[in-house]
Structure formats: structure tokens, C-alpha cells
Design brief:
The protein is α/β, with parallel strands linked by helices and 619 residues long. Helix content is 33%, strand content 18%. Strands 1, 2, 3, 4, 5, 21, 22 and 23 form an 8-stranded mixed sheet that branches. Strand 13, helix 11 and strand 14 form a beta-alpha-beta unit. Helix 4 packs across helix 10, helix 10 packs across helix 11 and helix 14 packs parallel to helix 16. It is globular. 55% of the residues are buried.
């Protein structure tokens, strides 16, 4: 395997350059321009100035009512009214006759569940639920099927990621096991498209998909010389194109390499079609009409609707600002929420690369929004990617003298963490390498030593990949939780063992059981677009820890967890990390009716969500 050194694409401000030619993104950036708002009346990412003044007045009159009804009013979004798709049609419905798993503190299985409007009003014995719901309640027989709370992915990138997903087809390892299969699919796409139409795909990863280490004009021109072809590497830092794409983009044979980037050449000095870093490949993909015309709001709505099949009812945006490189990214999320068509809730984290002052000037605060779309915390990044050899390590990488990169130096991380936590922000801090996690914990210790209540900060380490016993002990002491990208184990486990760390250190990857035994909370996530958010598959990965490349190999079997623990990590624990445990994450009275009925055993990766309700409305 060729060792490509790269960082975390979605944690880099460079990622936003991918969208610089998008018309709607340009409008968002203009909306956030200082010329459009004064220091005395800063731009709010959700509404225009006049509308904001109206809403602020309205919020004052309904604020107490909102607290009493457990519904948050903000930005003019009222509670969802009953409609013809509601479970109850305005009345009460009782579900019984199946396996209703509440995922409450006891992981109770109950006989019946009652829902009125968008709220669960009772869960328990059928007789007790009927007494609360009333004899006139409608009754639904589950016919032995299983009902669970909606799954929650606490770390995705849906705002920018949905735009990419809408214009680039996925050809990654979860779909194709080899380069040959990918090329075969591209050939099929070429046969179905008129000449001149672009073929654009994403998540190709030759480091794990069998075949050559790269794609060149030779392979892609064999697919088609009549269609521009662009293949986006899963790293986000490499791309491949055919000669037609270079022709359309006006890339000459004697093109010079931009600073920090490369148009790769062969031994004879000829271009190969491989491009390193976005400064190079943006010159090609920027000519793709689909990327310029994509509508971010419609892209987000479409992606959330697609994910309903996986039983997801809440997702997240862990780099808000990454699409437009401005605070106006929030308007995409809130506009989607106000459309009445949002198939999942979103919890978002403003990204540090824009600068705290940018978010403060835009008056974006934790808690802004409502139950559908809300600002949940602030995102910091300590290092890069372990499989990209930029995660910050205590010891050098295997067969290397490199220890990776610090995206934020230790003192800067402390300073920003204390400042943000002091203003009431929850902290979600990316840390992959063990040295990076040391820096994260040092920052959390600085927050605590500044007199800030860590139980209110709810600091969490994103990915939390390479973890030692002493760090788990510090996490417990500092009230810090973990969120594991469990796909690291399944998809890259063999590479971590053979290419990145060696087996002893690779066994420290995603230590779910160890943190559970230590009393440290944790969740599982997909980090979409790194992997796709399929909760049942994530549960399987955590329970079995088998690897994609060697299906019989189990990476660190001592770190496997129970199915119950894995379900909690994608429901109740995830709700807690997102400051939403009061409204979602379990099937309990008083919580929102985010409910999924499964067509089979939900503990099987072959099960599918048969029906999904969010806020009591059928998706």
C-alpha cells in the first residue's frame, strides 16, 4: 500500500473550497458579508434582520408556554401541528402485540406504548397504558414486530456532506470490494449517460479496495473518452480524472503544480490523471455543472429522507460553517427545519476554523433553534487522521519517524476550550492519536481548573481512537465522554495493524468495553462521509469487531460489547451527548415520538426500518 499522508478532510477549512463555485453557497457568503450587517445588529444565520426582530418579540410572549410544553420556540418555528400523517390524527394511539424496547435506564421491554400528537404519553403494561390513554384510543397490533426509539448518529457532516452526496455517487468499500468492480460500475454509468455528461463518484479508497494504488488516464479513458470522469478519493485529499475531464477543464499538458498541490506525472513527465490536494483537483471538479447548481437545503432534505431507511431520526453536523466558510451555514439547517419536510432532527456544532469571533458576531449561541434543528455545542480539532498518518502520536508511526500533526497546539487548544466553555458552550474535540488525546484532556483539565463545571460542559472526544488506560482514568475524573468512529475497526483495522501502528498499538483502537467498565460514557458514530450512517452495521462492528479485509480477524476481541450497549450508544447515550436526553433517545412518557418499527429482528444487519415516525409524523 502506498502511504499517502493526509489530514481529516471535513476538519479542514480547505474542504469548503469544493463548494466555492456553488451559486447558493455564494449567496450564503454574501449574506454573511460585513457590509450586510452592522456591529450593532449582527447577522443571524437563520433569518433576516427585520424578521429576527419580529421573532424576538414573539418569542418573549410564548417563551413560558414553550417551557411548559417541553417545546423550544425559536426563529419563528412553531411546534408541529397534527396532520394526516400523524400516528394519532389528533387522538391517542396505543401500540401493543410486539417487542417494544424502550432503551430507558433499565433497557425495559414493555407491553404497550401510547402516543398523542408528537409526544409519548405512556409506556408499560397494556392495562396501565390503556388507563392513561383512555378506552377510546386507537389500537395498533404490532404483529410481533419490534419497536425501538429512533437511532441517533452524534457525529456526521450533513450540511456540506449532503451537497457532495447529491452530486457524487458513492463507490466506496461498503459497496465495491475492488477497483475492478468500481471501474465496471463506471462503465455501466457511461452506457446510461449521453456523451458529454459528467460521471462523478466519491469515496474510492485503493488503500482498502483491492487493486492498484491509484487510477490513471489508462483506466479511466478505457471507461469512456466521451464523458468527463472525476473520482474523489475517500481521504478528501486525492482525486482522479480521465483525459476528457482534463480537456473540459482546460488543463494543458504542461500545467504547473500549484503551491502545496500536484498534478501527478509518470516517469516520462506525462500527466497521469491523479491529483493531490484540492488546489489541483478543484481546477477540474469546478467545471462540473452539478456541483455549481446543487441546492444545499434540498440536498439536506433529500439525504435525511434517504437515511430514514436505516432508522435514523437524529443526526448531526460537526463542522458547521464548512460549506460556505461562514456562519450562514446555520441558515441551511434552519431553512430545512422550517420546510415541514425534514425527516430527521439535526444537532450542529459551529467549527473553530472560522474563529470564535465570527460565531459571536453572528449571535449564534448554544441552544439556538428548536427540537428539529438546534445548535448543540462547539467543535475543536486536536489532530488529523491516523490512517492518513496525521493523527498526533506519543510514538512514531510504524516504520517512520513521523508522529503526525497537531491541528491546534496544546496552549491554543487550552485557551479556546476555556474561553468557549466559559461562555456556556459544550465542547466536542476531535482527537485521534494518543498524544492528541493527551492534549484534549489537558485542555479539559484547564477548563475544570478555571472553575467551570465539567458536568455542564459535557466535553466529548470525537473519534477517541488510540486510548490508553491512564487516559481512560483521566476521562472518568474529568467527566469526559467518548464518541467512537467504529468503522475504523471494521474498514481500516487491518491497515492499522499492518501499515499504521503494528498490532500492539492497533489493539488500543476504539476501546468501547474498557471505557464502559470504567464508567465512562460513549457513543458510536459514522463520521459521514468517512463511512455511511447505518446504525445496525455500526452495532455489528462494535459487537463483533471483525474486519472488512480479513473477515475472520477480530481486532482486540476484549473490546467487544453487548448488543444492548451498542444500541444505547446510538440512542440514549447519543441523546445525552447532544444535550437532547430530555426529548429523544428512549421511549418514555414526555419524550418526542421518534419511533421506528422494524421489519425483522433489529439485531440483524439485514433488518430494515419498515416505518419511521419523527415527532409523531410518519416519514
Amino acid at each position: 500500500m502506498k502511504k499517502h499522508v493526509y489530514g481529516c478532510a471535513c476538519c479542514s477549512p480547505e474542504f469548503g473550497k469544493l463548494f466555492q463555485g456553488n451559486r447558493r453557497v455564494a449567496e450564503l457568503k454574501a449574506q454573511d458579508s460585513p457590509s450586510n450587517h452592522s456591529s450593532s445588529d449582527s447577522l443571524h444565520p437563520c433569518v433576516s434582520t427585520d424578521r429576527r426582530r419580529f421573532i424576538q418579540g414573539a418569542a418573549a410572549s410564548v417563551g413560558m408556554l414553550g417551557l411548559m410544553s417541553n417545546q423550544v420556540f425559536a426563529f419563528g418555528t412553531a411546534p408541529r401541528e397534527p396532520n394526516d400523517k400523524n400516528l394519532t390524527g389528533g387522538d391517542v394511539t396505543i401500540f401493543s402485540g410486539g417487542n417494544i424496547l424502550t432503551v430507558d435506564s433499565d433497557f425495559s421491554e414493555v407491553e404497550a406504548l401510547a402516543i398523542r400528537g408528537n409526544q409519548i404519553i405512556a409506556a408499560g403494561l397494556l392495562s396501565e397504558v390503556t388507563a392513561i390513554a383512555g378506552e377510546g384510543a386507537a389500537k395498533v397490533d404490532l404483529a410481533g414486530k419490534t419497536m425501538l426509539p429512533g437511532f441517533i448518529d452524534p457525529h456526521t457532516h450533513v450540511v456540506a456532506g449532503s451537497v457532495v452526496d447529491s452530486v457524487m455517487e458513492y463507490v466506496g468499500m461498503a459497496r465495491f470490494g475492488s477497483t475492478k468492480e468500481v471501474l465496471g460500475h463506471l462503465s455501466q454509468m457511461a452506457r446510461q449517460k449521453p456523451p458529454g455528461d459528467w460521471i462523478v463518484v466519491r469515496n474510492f479508497d485503493p488503500s482498502v479496495q483491492a487493486g492498484p494504488d491509484t487510477l490513471t488516464f489508462a483506466e479511466l479513458d478505457a471507461v469512456s473518452k466521451d464523458h468527463p470522469i472525476f473520482v474523489f478519493n475517500a481521504s478528501g485529499h486525492l482525486a482522479y480524472a480521465n483525459s476528457k475531464a482534463f480537456e473540459v477543464a482546460g488543463i494543458p499538458s504542461d500545467v504547473e503544480n500549484p503551491p502545496g498541490a500536484e498534478f501527478v506525472r509518470d516517469a516520462e513527465g506525462n500527466l497521469t490523471g491523479e491529483m493531490k490536494n484540492n488546489v489541483a483537483f478543484l481546477q477540474v471538479i469546478s467545471k462540473y455543472p452539478g456541483l455549481a447548481e446543487a441546492d444545499p437545503v434540498e440536498s439536506l432534505l433529500g439525504l435525511l429522507s434517504k437515511w430514514s431507511q436505516f432508522g435514523l431520526t437524529t443526526v448531526s453536523e460537526l463542522a458547521l460553517g464548512g460549506l460556505s466558510q461562514s456562519a450562514s451555514d446555520a441558515s441551511v439547517m434552519f431553512e430545512a427545519a422550517q420546510s415541514g419536510r425534514m425527516a430527521a432532527r439535526v444537532r450542529a456544532y459551529p467549527f473553530y476554523t472560522l474563529g470564535a469571533e465570527t460565531w459571536d458576531e453572528a449571535k449564534v449561541q448554544q441552544g439556538d433553534g428548536n427540537a428539529l434543528a438546534r445548535i448543540a455545542g462547539y467543535k475543536l480539532v486536536a489532530d488529523g487522521s491516523n490512517q492518513g498518518f496525521t493523527g498526533l502520536q506519543r510514538e512514531p508511526y510504524l516504520d517512520s519517524d513521523s508522529r503526525g500533526l497537531a491541528y491546534m497546539f496544546a496552549d491554543e487548544l487550552k485557551e479556546v476550550a476555556v474561553e468557549r466553555a466559559g461562555k456556556g458552550w459544550q465542547l466536542a474535540i476531535h482527537g485521534n492519536g494518543d498524544a492528541a488525546i493527551d492534549n484534549v484532556l489537558d485542555a479539559c483539565e484547564a477548563v475544570r481548573d478555571a472553575g467551570i463545571d465539567m458536568s455542564k460542559v459535557r466535553a466529548r472526544i470525537e473519534h477517541c481512537s488510540i486510548l490508553h488506560d491512564d487516559q481512560i482514568a483521566r476521562m472518568k475524573e474529568l467527566k469526559v465522554s467518548a464518541s467512537f468512529l467504529i468503522g475504523h475497526v471494521h474498514y481500516w483495522g487491518v491497515a492499522m495493524r499492518d501499515e499504521v501502528f503494528g498490532e500492539p498499538k492497533a489493539r488500543l483502537l476504539d476501546r468501547c468495553r474498557s471505557v464502559e467498565q470504567a464508567g465512562v460514557g460513549y457513543t458510536l458514530h459514522s463520521d459521514f462521509m468517512v463511512t455511511d450512517p447505518v446504525p445496525l452495521h455500526m452495532i455489528e462492528m462494535a459487537v463483533t469487531r471483525t474486519t472488512w479485509k480479513e473477515p475472520d480477524y477480530v481486532l482486540a476481541p476484549q473490546e467487544t460489547i453487548s448488543v444492548e450497549s451498542a444500541i444505547r450508544a446510538l440512542t440514549s447515550e447519543a441523546a445525552w451527548q447532544l444535550f437532547s436526553e430530555h426529548e429523544i433517545g428512549s421511549l418514555e412518557a414526555g419524550k418526542m415520538a421518534d419511533v421506528v418499527l422494524w421489519n425483522g429482528n433489529p439485531f440483524s444487519v439485514y433488518a430494515r426500518a419498515e416505518r419511521v415516525w419523527i415527532d409523531g409524523a410518519l416519514v
